[in-house]
Amino acid sequence: MRPLERHRDAGAYALGVLDAADAFRFEDHLVECGTCRARVADLDLPARALRAHGRSVPHVLDPAAPPTARLLGRLLDTAGHDRRQRRLVRLRRGLGAVAAAVALAAGSAVAVRDAGGGPQPLRAAAHDDRTRVAAVLTARERAWGTEVGLRVRDEGPARVCELVAVGTDGSRDTVTTWRGPGREMETGGGTGLRPGRIERFEVRAAGGGRLLTLRPR
After folding, report:
1. Domain count of the chain?
2. Of 40, 110, 114, 168, which residue is most buried, by most CB within 10 angstroms?
3. Which residues pair with 166 in a beta bridge?
4. Residue 177 is part of which domain span?
5. Contact 45/80 with Cβ under 8 angstroms?
C-alpha cells in the first residue's frame, strides 16, 4: 500500500470496513502519521452513527442502495453543534465517501454474522506529544472477557510500562507490561472485563503517571 493510499484509507478504517490485512497495515501507518490520526478522530462520531444505523436495519440489504437524505442529515447532526463549524468543510469533502460506505458497512456486518466470525474488534489510536508515546489498540470480545492487542512507539526515557483497563465502575486491571523506549513494538494480553464494561485503556509508566489514554470504539 502506497503512502497516498494509506491516507485515503482513514475513512474506511474509521468505519471498520477495511479487511484484516489492510487494517493491520493501516494501523502500522497510523502510529507514525498524525494527519491520519486526526482524520480518524474527526470521523469517530459519524462512524459511530453509521454503525448504530447498521445495527438497526434488516439483515437483508441491497448493497447498491444509496443512503437516504434523512440518514445523511442525522450523520451531520451527530457531530454536535459546538463542533460543526470547525468540522463542516472536512465533513462535506468526505461525505461522498462516507455515503458510499454506508451500504458496504451494513453489508459487511451481515457477512460477518453469516460467516459466524463474531463482531468486529473495537479500535483506538492516540498519541501524546508531551510523553512521546503513540499507540494503536484493538479489543475483541471473548468468552472469558476481552482480548487486547497493542502496537506502541515510545520515544521517551527507558522505563517499564503497563497497559491498564479501566472499568466503567472505576476498577482497574493490568493487561500487559513491557519495557521501552525508542522503538515500535507489539504486545498483547487480556482482561476479565468485557468490552461493554471498559471505559478506557491507559498506558502508564510502572509506578508512575499516565502516558496515554485510549478509548476504543
Report:
1. 2
2. 40
3. 172, 200
4. 122-214
5. yes
